[in-house]
């Protein structure tokens, strides 16, 4: 996603009109590209290839959980507590947060939050009532909230108590790890203008509807339905009351977004540039042509193009790798009626993982801009969260070992494909639920628009074939992949998907504290494949409630061994190409972009 829920800041863009470059046709540019104006009042920022922004509402729903959507939303409505790495280190960015302080009780069972003296763009003060509004909506509609995981926010908050306009207390259902609560749970709270949004239709009067369960459900439905009307984002009065450094000027369904400075902003993270233009491209090649034409100020190149970076530096750009606090993977659909029973066998997942040559993929296919991932904790940066077992690669690449693992469990190679010939749950058999004659055939719906991703899928196909596993590849834009491969029940028509890939720039960007409650806990909001393991649930719970230094490494070890997904190389978020003179920020490893920090320094 992301896709994933967390992320803080990221890229840029300027103004554009025709998709023509110097002697090169920019086929595939959907954002519209014109010659650079030379104005220091604008920045052109290139969005990831094949990404079309499709959500601004500060409450995420399934299918809209992408870090770029979150980045746009957060410059319009600032989070209560913004965590990011835009200063070079991950931490609480108070300049772009609405809260100024968080004091935990001595027993770690509550926290009292202080709000800054801030105002909405219409002049009304931002108060605890606006936080309560978000709290009530999410509490009553949590199963429709994409970030929901049972037993986590909002379940962890037993009550909301307003002290005064600028202070409130959240009581917890038990004691929690302060680091996890602050960085992962409280950072999800989005303060919303209750005095504008607490209604059920465009013509309805605003009232305290959110304070009853039925009213909160109706308000939620109204806001979510309004959020689906992308073409009205710039004109709908609903979205004009903001708290962040920017407001919407235009929002095209084709992918171009124009943000202009919120001149009423009174926070610490004011915009340095009056207008930000976010540009959408269908391919990386089209975006690279726009860079060469000079119509993008902050863009990217393929990892495979690092060898020709001089051609960009000669044009007045500098090239920087943007690494992420993330993991990359393909989730299994454990409820798929055809292959779910196979995926539920640990030995089968081990054979699949042994067929993935992460080291070679990282070095050759990604030109050294990716690192192998062997478990649920990011491995691109050193951390105390990572277990020795995950670092050591529990299942080294070996097609021969993978084949033996399958034949030892009742599979026989026939015409190049493994077939279950010994069904049953005993030793040397295929496992519970795997029927005789089942062919080891997998299909993936993979994100389109990335040469590296396409090449990786082809390499995986060849390697799986060596093991005796068929691997069929279909591609679609990332928004389509996310919408077609969600949680499902076995008999649900939407449960036909088997494997999903949405990680061209990393599959999941973590908050500062990389616990897996949303991803791998039973029923987790982003546990797309319905993975469930009671022992892992216990370990995940421990990472959120215990201050023990062993909690995260123990969790890291367990999921490196149990393989809830197919672990894949974690690529840099992107290899950025930035116009000389554009600075004022660090590339945030949490993967969001924060345009208010961008500034022309020359």
TrEMBL record:
Keywords per UniProt: Signal, Transport
Domain of life: Bacteria
SUPFAM superfamilies in the cross-refs: Periplasmic binding protein-like II
Originating species: Streptomyces rubrogriseus
Domain Solute-binding protein family residue range list: 97-525
Matching InterPro entries: Peptide/Ni-bd, SBP_5, SBP_5_dom
Family classification: Belongs to the bacterial solute-binding protein 5 family.
Signal peptide: 1-35
Localization per record: Cell envelope
Listed name of the protein: Peptide ABC transporter substrate-binding protein
């Amino acid at each position: 996603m992301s896709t994933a829920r967390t992320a803080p800041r990221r890229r840029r863009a300027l103004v554009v009109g025709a998709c023509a470059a110097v002697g090169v046709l920019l086929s595939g540019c959907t954002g519209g590209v014109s010659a650079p104006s030379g104005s220091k009042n604008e920045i052109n920022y290139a969005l990831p290839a094949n990404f079309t922004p499709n959500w601004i509402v500060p409450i995420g729903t399934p299918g809209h959980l992408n870090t770029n959507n979150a980045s746009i939303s957060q410059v319009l409505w600032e989070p209560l507590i913004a965590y990011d790495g835009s200063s070079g280190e991950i931490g609480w960015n108070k300049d772009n947060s609405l809260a100024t302080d968080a004091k935990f009780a001595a027993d770690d069972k509550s926290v009292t939050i202080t709000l800054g003296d801030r105002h909405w763009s219409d002049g009304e003060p931002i108060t605890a009532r606006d936080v309560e509004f978000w709290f009530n909506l999410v509490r009553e509609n949590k199963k429709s909230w994409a970030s929901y995981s049972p037993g986590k926010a909002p379940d962890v908050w037993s009550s909301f108590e307003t002290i005064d306009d600028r202070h409130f207390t959240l009581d917890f259902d038990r004691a929690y790890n302060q680091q996890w609560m602050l960085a992962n749970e409280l950072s999800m709270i989005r303060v919303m203008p209750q005095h504008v949004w607490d209604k059920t239709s465009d013509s309805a009067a605003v009232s305290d509807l959110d304070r009853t369960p039925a009213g909160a459900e109706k308000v939620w439905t109204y806001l979510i339905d309004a959020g689906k009307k992308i073409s009205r984002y710039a004109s709908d009065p609903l979205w004009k009351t903001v708290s962040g450094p920017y407001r919407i000027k235009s929002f095209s369904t084709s992918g171009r977004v124009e943000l202009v400075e919120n001149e009423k902003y009174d926070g610490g993270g004011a915009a340095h540039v009056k207008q930000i233009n976010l540009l959408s491209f269908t391919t990386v090649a089209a975006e690279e042509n726009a860079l060469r034409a000079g119509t993008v100020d902050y863009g990217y190149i393929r990892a495979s193009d690092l060898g020709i970076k001089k051609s960009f530096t000669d044009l007045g750009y500098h090239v920087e790798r943007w690494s992420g606090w993330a993991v990359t993977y393909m989730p299994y659909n454990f409820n798929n009626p055809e292959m779910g029973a196979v995926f539920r066998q640990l030995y089968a997942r081990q054979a699949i993982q042994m067929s993935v040559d992460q080291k070679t993929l990282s070095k050759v296919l990604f030109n050294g801009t990716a690192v192998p991932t062997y478990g649920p904790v990011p491995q691109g940066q050193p951390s105390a969260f990572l277990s020795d077992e995950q670092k050591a690669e529990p299942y080294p690449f070996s097609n021969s070992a993978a084949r033996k693992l399958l034949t030892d469990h009742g599979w026989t190679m026939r015409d190049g494909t493994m077939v279950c010939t010994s069904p049953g749950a005993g030793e040397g058999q295929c496992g519970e639920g795997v029927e005789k004659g089942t062919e080891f055939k997998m299909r993936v719906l993979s994100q389109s628009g990335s040469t590296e991703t396409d090449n990786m899928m082809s390499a995986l196909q060849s390697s799986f074939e060596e093991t005796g596993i068929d691997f069929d590849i279909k591609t679609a834009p990332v928004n389509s992949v996310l919408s077609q491969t969600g949680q499902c029940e076995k008999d649900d028509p939407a449960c036909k998907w088997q494997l999903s890939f949405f990680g061209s720039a990393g599959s999941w960007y973590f908050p500062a504290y990389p616990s897996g409650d949303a991803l791998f806990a039973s029923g987790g909001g982003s546990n797309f494949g319905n993975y469930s393991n009671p022992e892992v649930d216990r370990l995940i719970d421990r990472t959120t409630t215990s201050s023990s230094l062993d909690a995260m490494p123990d969790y890291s070890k367990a999921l490196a061994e149990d393989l809830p997904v197919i672990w894949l190389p974690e690529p840099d978020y992107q290899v950025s190409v930035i116009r000389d003179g554009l600075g004022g920020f660090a590339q945030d490893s949490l993967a969001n972009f924060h345009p208010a920090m961008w500034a022309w320094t020359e």
